[in-house]
Amino acid sequence: MKPYVPLLGLKADKDNMKMIECLNDMQLLANEWGFLPFFFFLIPGFSIEENIDPRWWFSDGSVYSDREEAEEEQADPMGAWDWKGRCIIEGDLAYGKFFNGKVGYISMDYFPDFVNYRRSKYQLSNQERNVLLTLQENHSLLSKELRKLSGYERRRTAHRECNPLLREAQRTQPKIRKRKITSAVESFETVTTKLQMGGRMLIADFEYSHDRQGRRYGWSVARYSTPEDFFGEERLLCRRSPKDSYDYLLCHLMKLLPQATSPQLIKLLG
Q1: Is 179 inside a domain boundary?
Q2: How far is CA 32 from the centre of its chain?
Q3: Residue 195 falls within a domain, yes or no?
Q4: Which long-range contacts (CB under 8 A, 24 or more apart) does 250-253 make?
Q5: Fewer CB near the last or first residue (10 Å), C or N of the chain?
Q6: Structural domain of residue 96, as residue ranges?
Q7: What's the pTM?
């Protein structure tokens, strides 16, 4: 495999650049850079989206006429969106909404310091603490399982009276002024995003539904876990202070992204 010549530097030679063409390429790049957003994020060239061969970006296998042809070429007929779960497991990478609410990878060379710093900055609300405790008790849960066990229910549409006479009576009744709820209720999506941003939750894998013939269908469902349950507490040990962890991460990113501005790097680190 040719070495990567990333887009990040201003002197990058695009003609000789090695683009992501397979799962292994994506794993190597994530581990080489240490930080790798999935989608474009703040700094040009700093994402899977910008460094992948366009044929493999959300590919449906159309690069090959069928799966058998792909197997003959010993190629993976799927694309980056399908590789993301395997990349977590096989690449030994942390994955989640770490970058201002956007998903991406962090290698284990930097994830312990990332967790150490972020946890010092993110204070848990009661709702976030409830969801986190639910996850800790169960170690690993699909998003729909975590939603239900944490007490979140999807809103149902209001029942519309079928009897036109009763419907008219309801319409003409005096309106009762509802009491305002002073405490804001965070949505399940907001809570899980904040927990990931705070280094307390990550996405451990993605799971799909299958039909009776074993064929996959529909969108994948995220499986959540805590960093401690996924990697083990020993691998997350960090002997630096949160400030020292921040300085360590910032130093790495300044070398990796020489064209980035200070505000961009500060936003990247949160």
Answers
A1: no
A2: 19
A3: yes
A4: 252/34, 252/110, 253/35
A5: N
A6: 14-152+185-269
A7: 0.77
Please write the tens of the pLDDT for every residue from 79-102: 888 888 889 989 899 999 999 999
Count: domains in the chain: 1
Tokens coding 114: 């990332």
Helix (H, G, I), strand (E, B) or coil at 209: strand
Is the residue at 215 inside a domain?
yes
Give me the residue label for tokens 């993301």: 84
Residue 144 lies in a domain: yes
Cα distance from N-terminal residue to C-terminal residue, the chain = 34
10 Å Cβ neighbour count for 47? 20
DSSP E strand stretches across the chain: 35-37, 93-99, 102-107, 140-142, 202-210, 216-225
> At residue 223, what is the residue type?
R
pLDDT tens digits, residue range 150-182?
998 765 545 555 555 555 555 555 443 433 323
Q: Give Cα 23 to chain centroid, integer Å.
A: 17
Here the tokens at position 209 are 């539904």
